[in-house]
Write a structure and sequence with these properties.
Length: 352
């Protein structure tokens, strides 16, 4: 009798040991230190909602990393600011709240002083050029303001345009007009003689509909993405003073340094390719926004050469102010801005 009981206890204990060993080995948290063949789990905080084309482009980047590493790297996406808010994403990467993060430099004003030059109204024509320019300049200047993270790449949207409830053909039409704008675009509105009204994108549709504002500065893609094209009457193509918003994709420095060298190479290779993919995604969204506006029967008004010259002159003080502030901070703002303009003049958008 005792022998049978002892055998039963032994069998149960043995089964428990095997089960626990299986659980630990098969379901435990994989190592993220890059050692051996263990899976490297990384979190990615991104402010775009999961439905946005830029989220989908970032998600494709993460999947490509997984594919090229044969599944050794698994990146979990957290869209819509669910892990860190847009203005806290960079700090969140530094502090390890997320391993990777994407957000706009402009969301934390003052943190990226040299990179503020990227958003200036210098006449961006498309998102591809803006993305290539932003990424190239960061790699050339290696600004200290990004030194606490490892920079994977940058990208930027196409030129901001003016969408309004009444046609704006000339600078005089804009005087005293209430224009929805935030960040740098608010300064652009003031420089052009308009009255800036700060509000978020979700508030803009109703504000235009009710006449709280008469116009908004935004990328063309916003007119379809946020349906604001339904509550405006015309669009003024202000590409002559086209501004952008640069966005960083950065990684926690310790997590980067822990990666095996072959995995680092894959991250670098894929990131180089994705600069253009984001730029082209911005341009695709802008084209869809333009089509949406035209289907609604709205006009897209080009600025005459004379008017374009006047608008450029009106925003020039913003560029001068940037250079002066950089001099005070002992940063190479003048050289940075000169390089930016030179790259736009090269018009590299047709390069593969």
């Amino acid at each position: 009798m005792r022998t049978n009981i002892q055998r039963t206890i032994f069998c149960v204990a043995s089964f428990a040991v095997v089960a626990v060993s299986f659980f630990i080995g098969g379901c435990g948290k994989p190592s993220s230190d890059g050692g051996g063949e263990d899976t490297i789990n990384l979190s990615y905080s991104i402010f775009f909602p999961a439905t946005h084309i830029q989220y989908k482009t970032a998600e494709a980047w993460a999947k490509e990393i997984a594919n090229r590493t044969d599944g050794r790297v698994v990146i979990t996406m957290y869209p819509g600011g669910t892990l860190t808010k847009p203005d806290q994403t960079y700090a969140g990467v530094i502090n390890g709240i997320s391993d990777i993060g994407m957000s706009c430099c402009a969301y934390t004003r003052g943190r990226f002083p040299l990179l503020e030059g990227l958003d200036l109204p210098v006449g961006y024509l498309d998102g591809l050029t803006a993305s290539r320019t932003a990424d190239a300049l960061v790699r050339k200047y290696k600004p200290a303001e990004l030194a606490q993270t490892h920079v994977l790449y940058l990208h930027a949207h196409g030129p901001g345009i003016l969408a309004s409830k009444t046609p704006v053909n000339a600078l005089s039409d804009l005087q005293g007009m209430k224009v929805r704008a935030t960040g740098l675009s608010a300064k652009v509105v003031e420089a052009l003689g308009g009255v800036r009204v700060a509000m978020s994108q979700p508030e803009t549709y109703e504000a235009l509909q009710r006449g709280v504002v008469q116009a908004t500065f935004c990328p063309m893609e916003t007119l379809e993405g946020w349906k604001q094209g339904e509550v405006i009457e015309s669009v003024t193509d202000t590409a002559a003073i086209g501004y952008t918003t640069a966005m960083y994709v950065v990684m926690n420095k310790a997590k980067w340094e822990a990666l095996p060298e072959d995995v680092k190479t894959i991250f670098n290779d894929v990131s180089r390719e994705w600069v253009d993919k984001h730029g082209r995604a911005w341009d695709k969204a802008d084209a869809e926004g333009r089509r949406f506006v035209l289907e609604l029967g709205h006009d897209i008004i080009p600025l005459s050469a004379e008017q374009a010259t006047k608008w450029v002159a009106q925003v020039q003080p913003l560029l001068d102010s940037y250079v002066k502030r950089m001099e005070e901070l002992e940063l190479p703002g003048a050289a940075f801005l000169a390089d930016l303009k030179a790259r736009l003049d090269e018009d590299t958008t047709d390069q593969p």
